[in-house]
Design goal:
By secondary structure, the chain is α/β, with parallel strands linked by helices. It is built from 9 helices and 18 strands. It folds into 3 domains: about 5-50 and about 155-220 and about 320-375, FAD/NAD(P)-binding domain (3-Layer(bba) Sandwich), CATH 3.50.50; about 90-145, no CATH class; about 225-315, D-Amino Acid Oxidase, Chain A, domain 2.
């Protein structure tokens, strides 16, 4: 049985794990190891999402670091990483078709403005001025001009590439079986192969699998799984660069740099999907429901051909926001899980904050509300 040591071990080679590795290396940490269970980097949710970089529609506990990422990191990320991550900051319309939709959007916009976000609800006329391709059924929308979108796979691999160049060691097909304590502190990461890695700090950013791993040292995070699906169309004439969403979450998406449309959607049946986490089959029920929703909002796409569909598992947290924190009961452990489908757009800020936490620094914004402690029993 071989043993390897590092200053920091990151479990999970998704966008959050890769970003954390990059920011640790940038801060001068010489020995960082990333362990990825699959054959490829970004195999999980990081390559299976619609690429939204949004602040609107977020829980108020997430909004400060979502805004930090948009204000201070995304605009220069392509230059910093040396790769075009296809970031467009052209705004986000979250559309409504009923008065109930608009009331929901008004409440969300009002709370967001309290934290300084430029977000307002606009009427049907303004919606058409922003995006003339939308259905007349849209009677209003929330509008956040500083929202946008980027390419999730390219972004993940850009972080990976720069981290490797800066000396981070990545191990693929390195599935973690358990964690191990030494003198009451998290120290060991044991792979299914029997290999043992050791570090002073272990960051668990492995999606739903984070729950299994934390349990091996007596910590349980209230996560559940949710299978979300997406589709991409054939290339279309350029229509718009904004991000779209719906008040009730029917679908979300954007037109990509080369012309295809990328959409994620819900059918209402996702919670009943009964498949193992290794299964990634898409459902004709979900795809058809998504297509109907998309056509009802963007009629011009009715005849667009679908090139492919794909799906992936989301780690849903009990209260809808992630756990990003140290765990007092297990010194040396940092959790970064339960992103509930919201994790891509905040990845630069999350990666930076995880690096800061690993080094004992104060995070760029206060994330105490995302502590694991919030789930301690109170009755």
């Amino acid at each position: 049985m071989s043993k390897m040591t590092a200053d920091v071990i990151i479990i999970g080679g998704g966008v959050n794990g890769c970003a954390t590795a990059y920011y640790l290396a940038k801060k001068g940490v010489k020995d960082v190891v990333v362990l990825e269970a699959d054959k490829s980097i970004g195999h999980g949710g990081s390559s299976r999402n619609g690429g939204g970089v949004r602040q609107s529609g977020r829980d108020m506990r997430e909004l400060p670091y979502a805004m930090y990422a948009v204000n201070h990191m995304w605009p220069t990320l392509s230059e910093e990483l040396g790769v075009d991550v296809e970031y467009y900051q052209k705004g986000n319309l979250r559309m409504g078709k009923t008065e109930a939709h608009l009331k929901k959007l008004e409440n969300l916009a009002a709370r967001s403005r309290e934290l300084g976000l430029d977000m307002n609800v606009v009427d049907a006329k303004t919606v058409k001025e922003i995006c003339p391709y939308l259905s007349d059924e849209v009677i209003g929308a929330s509008w956040c001009p500083t929202d946008g979108h980027a390419n999730p796979m390219v972004t993940t691999l850009a972080y990976y590439k720069r981290a490797v160049e800066m000396g981070v060691r990545f191990f693929t097909e390195a599935k973690v079986a358990s964690l191990g304590l030494y003198k009451g502190k998290l120290r060991r990461v044991i792979l299914e192969s029997g290999e043992v890695f050791e570090a002073e700090t272990v960051i668990i950013a492995a999606g739903y699998e984070s729950r299994y791993l934390a349990r091996t040292v007596g910590i349980d995070v209230p996560l559940s799984t949710y299978f979300e699906e997406a589709l991409v169309t054939e290339m279309q004439p350029h229509m718009f660069d904004i991000m779209l969403g719906c008040a009730d979450g029917d679908f979300y998406g954007h037109q990509s740099k080369h012309g295809s449309f990328v959409f994620g959607s819900d059918s209402g049946l996702e919670e009943e999907i009964d498949m193992p986490l290794t299964e990634l089959k898409t459902s004709s029920l979900t795809v058809s429901a998504g297509c109907r929703a998309i056509m009802s909002y963007i009629p011009l796409l009715a005849d667009a051909k679908i090139v492919r569909t794909w799906g992936g598992w989301i780690d849903m947290c009990h209260d809808g926001v992630p756990v990003i924190s140290r765990v007092d009961e297990v010194p040396g452990m940092i959790l970064a899980c339960g992103f509930t489908g919201h994790g891509f757009g905040t990845a630069p800020a999350v990666g930076l904050m995880l690096a800061q936490m690993a080094l004992g620094e104060e995070t760029v914004v206060d994330i105490s509300a995302l502590s694991y402690d919030r789930f301690k029993p109170v009755r």
